[in-house]
Every structure is written in C-alpha cells, then in structure tokens.
Amino acid sequence: MEDHKPTAFTFEIDNFSEKEAVISSPTFSSGGCQWYANVYPKGNGIEDHLAVYLQVANYGSLQLGWKRRAKFSFVLLNQSGKEFYKSTELCNLFCAQVSGWGIPKVLTLKKLKEKGSVEKNKLIVKVQVQVLEVVNEAEVTGNETMNVKGFQVLYSQVVQVSWIFVNHPDIALNFKPKSHLVKTTYMNLLLKLIEKLDKPPHSFSETELSNTRTELVDLTQTGFKLDWLKEKLDVIYLERKKTADASRIQELEQHNKNLKAELNKEKIKSAASAAKVLWLEQTVSNLKTKQNKKPKLSPN
C-alpha cells in the first residue's frame, strides 16, 4: 500500500440558498486519480440536511476490478474564509459498486441559516483527500466483501447496509455475536427480512406473516434493535386485516344479495301457486253454481 500526498481542493457555490438539485464540483486530481465532490443543498435521502460526498470521476471508463482506498474530510467556510464546519476524517474503499462516499447529515438547513454561515449567499467547500491504495485492474468474482460498521458484506450490499446505519445508527449497538461469519449471516437475514417487508400487505399469507414475525423476534434476540421493522410489520398486519375485513364484508353483501334473489324467486313461485289455487277454487265454485241451476225433474 503506497500513501500519496494529501490533496486539498476548494470550490465555491454562489446563490446557495436558491439551489435545489445536486451541485458537482469541477474534477480534481489526487494520488493519480480523478475525483469530484457532490453537494446536496436539500439533502440526499434525508430531508433538510446538507449532504456532501466524494466521488470517483469517470469510473465507467476504468478497468474491471478497479479500487481506490482513500482518507478524506470536508470543510465548510463562509465568504470571509472562516471555517464553520469540519468533518471527521473518513477512510473508505471506492469501487465500481460503491463509487462515492460521504456524509448524509452534515448540518440541518435550519442550523446552517442560524449560524449565519452562508455570507452573501456563498458557500465554500474544501475537500481534503489522501489516496492510500490504487488498484487499476483485478479479477472480479462477485464475492468481494467490504467492512461496514463491523459487518463484512458484499460490494453489492454496501450501499443498502450503509443507509441502514445512517437511518438507524444504534441498530447494532447491542449485537451479541462476535464471529465475522456469524455476523455476516445475520446481516444477510436482516436484508432478506427488510426486502420481504417491502412487499404489499395483501401479498402475505397468514403463514408468511407468522414466519416473518418469528424471523423478526430471532433477529431481535441477537441484539439488533429493530423497533422500526416491528412497526412496519404491525402496519402490514393492520392493512391485511382491513383488506380481509373488506373482503368479508363484500362476501356477506354478496351472500345477502343471493338470499334476496332466492327469496324473490320463492315469492314469485308462491304467487304463481296462489294464483293457481285461486283459479281452481273459482273453477270448482263455477261448477257448483252451474250444477245448482239445473232444473229439477218432477215425479210422475
């Protein structure tokens, strides 16, 4: 591993308060590699927070298996050049699957305004980078892993796992297993559970819901803090119950309609039968009347 000299790159953002979309800096060189910074004035995945990221430039043109390991930090300055924010130094591995790393919660936009840091509506961003390792080409198996908060995960899982820790920083504070293999296994189970809970509520069967709750309990017992997933599962239960209740009501309404239809048929049959009986009674009555009107024969 060859350490390159640290590099600092500074760029200015004018009319900062008017910006909505991501702002990309000009490309700069550090450690023989090309980089640029992304600034999200309205947040990236987390609303109302300024976010900053370091990105590998033109990574699509790099050779298969490329990697860059670098230490980096961000500094924010006002129009006068006074520093009002400096991040801790980060050290990350950049690759095709994860071409950028950064800080999604630098400062809330409210605090940024309260500090009066953005003088004359101008924000100055300084990026400090020191490249530690450069791999221009390597064999790719698809099984390469990276350490994220103590968990070895596949490159393809890095972004998702990183966001889990951003949104739920205390998720693994009480995680009990120490073995890297066991930790990886449980993280994979957690990712599968999260994917499962993203399905529409109506797609779950009773058995699937029961199994999902069991999986959630098992993961919680290992030390994962998963209140947010429990809330999500509870919502799925309620939504599914609403759907089931609505279906049951619809079934009862249809059954009621069917009963009414049968009742109407019987009424029609009864009316027809009553009419027939009345006709027969009238016929008999008419016959009796005719019979009574016949002249009686006198005896000789």
- Number of H/I helices: 5
CA-CA gap between termini: 150 Å
Q: What count of domains describes the coordinates? A: 2
CA gyration radius, whole angstroms: 38 Å
Q: Estimate what percentage of residues fall within beta strands.
A: 25-35%
What helical percentage do the residues reach? 25-40%
In total, the number of strands is 12
Q: What is the mean pLDDT?
A: 86
Ranges where pLDDT stays below 50 over 5 or more residues in a row are: none
> What is the SS-derived class?
alpha+beta
Main beta sheet: 5 strands, antiparallel
- Listing every helix as H and every strand as E from the N terminus to the C terminus, the arrangement reads EEEEEEEEEHEEEHHHH
Shape, please? elongated
Question: What is this entry, summarized?
Answer:
The chain has 300 residues and is an alpha+beta fold. The protein is built from 5 helices and 12 strands. A hairpin with an 8-residue loop joins strand 4 (33-40) and strand 5 (49-56).
How is this fold's topology laid out?
Layout: E1 7-13, E2 23-24, E3 28-30, E4 33-40, E5 49-56, E6 67-77, E7 83-86, E8 90-95, E9 100-108, H1 109-114, E10 123-135, E11 145-148, E12 151-154, H2 158-167, H3 180-196, H4 206-221, H5 227-293
Antiparallel strand pairs: 1-10, 2-4, 3-4, 4-5, 5-9, 6-7, 6-8, 6-10, 11-12
